[in-house]
Amino acid sequence: MEDSQITLREVDRGELTLLHEQVASEIRRAIADGEAMPGQRIPQAKDLAKVLNVNTNTVLRALRLLRDEGLVEMGRGRAIIVAGSPGRTIVVEKLRELIAFARTQGYRPDELATMMQQLSLHNPSAESRLKSS
Question: What HEC string does 81-119 produce?
Fold first, then answer.
């Protein structure tokens, strides 16, 4: 597995954005700019913390955000691997929005998954069954 070197700017402590969100944004930008590609490892949290001049826990919090977005995986030991692209991150975010909206409309996650599965088949009869539900 190939390691990548990414260029990160130090966080701005005067900015209103929380530090871990600034760190996550810097890593997102580096991945979007092609400095690290899917399958490549990025530096360990302690090394990122040193470069960004923040606490390691701040970096770990940012990495958990990126993991939840599907952008990185935190492997065994201390390996941090780029898992997806910024495009995937957008899809994950839109799915989260859809899930939240569906809940406000009274749908359970399993019902939403069934609807998505039916719609993904491009089966007109499935779509008409959904409309009549």
Answer: EECCCHHHHHHHHHHHHHHHHHHHCCCCHHHHHHHHHHH
